[in-house]
C-alpha cells in the first residue's frame, strides 16, 4: 500500500538531506567572500557587493539569490540583500563564530575526507587516512596553513563553550589548573578571568600554543598562566589539581585515550581531578533536544571521518576511565549545544 500524500517527505524535509552539501557550500561561499561583514547591519545590492568582493557579477548575484531561500539572506523590493540572524553567524563579530568553523570544514582536505564516508564505514578506517594516506594531525605538521585554520576553529569553539563551562563548573575547588591540549589559551583564559584565585598552565604542541602568549597577554593573564609545549602522549606538566581535556578524548581511539588519561593521573596533585569536556551520547533515551542530539551524532560521525576518535556514552566513559585507573566522579550537563557535559574522573 503506497503512502498517502501527507505521509511523504516534503521538499523541506528531503532537500537538507539530499543537498546538504550544496547548502553548506552556499553558506561557505557567502562567508569566504566576506559578504557577512560587508553587509553588517545594512542592506546592499548585488552590484555593491560585487564591488566589495571583486567576484563575477552574474555568478555572485545567483549565489546571493540562492542564499535567500537557504535562510541566510533576505532581499527587499529594491533588490537589496541583508543578513538574517542565521546568516549573521558568519560575521567576524558573531558570538557563534561561524566563519572559522566554516573555514575548517570547507578546507579541501576535510571536504575530501567526508566524500569517503562510505569507504570509511566499510573498512573501519578513518576517511581522512583513506583519502590522504596519513592522519589529520600528521597532516597539520605537513601543512601549517591548515593547522592555523584548525586552531582558529578550535579557539572559536572555545569562545562559544567557555561561558557555559564557567557557569556550570566550580573552579574555586582548585589551585592550579592545566588545560591539556589547550591550544591558544582561549578556553583557560575564560576560566581564569572568572576565577581570579586560580593559576593555570596551557599545554599543547609547539604549533598549538604558538598564539597562546598573545591571547594571555591581551587578557592580562600572563602573570597567572604559563605556556608549556609538548606531547600529552609523553607526559603532562606535573602538580596540577585539575587537568582539563576539552574536546581532546573524542579525537582519539581508546588506547590513545588511556595514555593521555594515564599521564594526567600520574601528574595529579593529591585530591585532584581530571575534567573532560565533551558530548555524551544518549543511551536509548529520547528526551533530549532533537537539535542537540543531532549535533552530538554528527560530531561522532565527524570524529569517525577525520580522526581515530569517537563521541562516547556515559557507560563508555566509565569503561575508559576504569581502564586508565580512574572512576567517574561526576557528570554535569552544560548549557551548551550538542549534549555537552563536564565529565569528572578521579583516581581509583
From TrEMBL:
<keyword id="KW-0808">Transferase</keyword>
<dbReference type="InterPro" id="IPR036388">
    <property type="entry name" value="WH-like_DNA-bd_sf"/>
</dbReference>
<keyword id="KW-0949">S-adenosyl-L-methionine</keyword>
<dbReference type="InterPro" id="IPR036390">
    <property type="entry name" value="WH_DNA-bd_sf"/>
</dbReference>
<dbReference type="InterPro" id="IPR012967">
    <property type="entry name" value="COMT_dimerisation"/>
</dbReference>
<feature type="domain" description="O-methyltransferase C-terminal">
    <location>
        <begin position="114"/>
        <end position="326"/>
    </location>
</feature>
<dbReference type="Pfam" id="PF00891">
    <property type="entry name" value="Methyltransf_2"/>
</dbReference>
<dbReference type="GO" id="GO:0008168">
    <property type="term" value="F:methyltransferase activity"/>
</dbReference>
<feature type="domain" description="O-methyltransferase dimerisation">
    <location>
        <begin position="18"/>
        <end position="90"/>
    </location>
</feature>
<dbReference type="InterPro" id="IPR029063">
    <property type="entry name" value="SAM-dependent_MTases_sf"/>
</dbReference>
<dbReference type="InterPro" id="IPR016461">
    <property type="entry name" value="COMT-like"/>
</dbReference>
<keyword id="KW-0489">Methyltransferase</keyword>
<dbReference type="InterPro" id="IPR001077">
    <property type="entry name" value="COMT_C"/>
</dbReference>
<protein>
    <submittedName>
        <fullName>Methyltransferase</fullName>
    </submittedName>
</protein>
<dbReference type="Pfam" id="PF08100">
    <property type="entry name" value="Dimerisation"/>
</dbReference>
<dbReference type="GO" id="GO:0032259">
    <property type="term" value="P:methylation"/>
</dbReference>
